[in-house]
Amino acid sequence: MSEQTLFDKILAKEIPSDAVYEDQTVYAFRDINPQAPVHVLVIPKHKMQSFADIRQRDAAEIGAFMQGVSRVAEQLGLERDGYRVVFNTGPHGQQTVRYIHAHILGGRQLQWPPG
Ligand code: 5GP
User: Fold this and answer.
1) Which of 8, 34, 50, 57 shows a CA-CA span of 20 to 30 A to 2?
2) CATH numbers and ranges of domains, the chain
3) Average pLDDT of the segment spanning 102-108
4) Average pLDDT of 89-105?
5) For this structure, is 101 an active site residue?
6) Ligand 1 mean position, distance from CA 101 (Å)
7) Half-sphere exposure (CA, 13 Å, Cβ side) for 18?
8) 50 pLDDT exceeds 70?
9) Edge-to-edge strands of the sheet including 102-106?
10) Cβ atoms of 50 and 90 closer than 8 Å
11) Does the CB atom of residue 31 touch ligand 1 within 6 A?
């Protein structure tokens, strides 16, 4: 059993969150400290700790997660102007919560490269 993270508790509804989408595979909620007009986090209901774990998982499960991320972006109305999907991974990636999560950022012109 891995440690219980903040996002385990959000998924279990032990900690409130501002949900934007939920289905059998994913849960999506607004980031508490948004870095863009739209900043949503998408987590798989079947836990992984980080992006580094995905190579060990079933491809269909990963595919369903990625399709969920894409679906959330569509539902947020970001398709026309575009958006960014980020998986912060490990210390250099500044991952602070050890429950894999896709950041969806949009609603403004984003810059590149990131800091
Ligand atoms: P990371 O740095 O691990 O990639 O991203 C974690 C994200 O979780 C951060 O963007 C941070 O603002 C967000 N976050 C931290 N605590 C909470 C919380 O209690 N609720 C929500 N909705 N987001 C949170």
Assistant:
1) 34
2) 6-106 (3.30.428.10)
3) 98
4) 98
5) yes
6) 9
7) 8
8) yes
9) 19-22, 26-30, 38-44, 102-106, 83-86
10) yes
11) yes
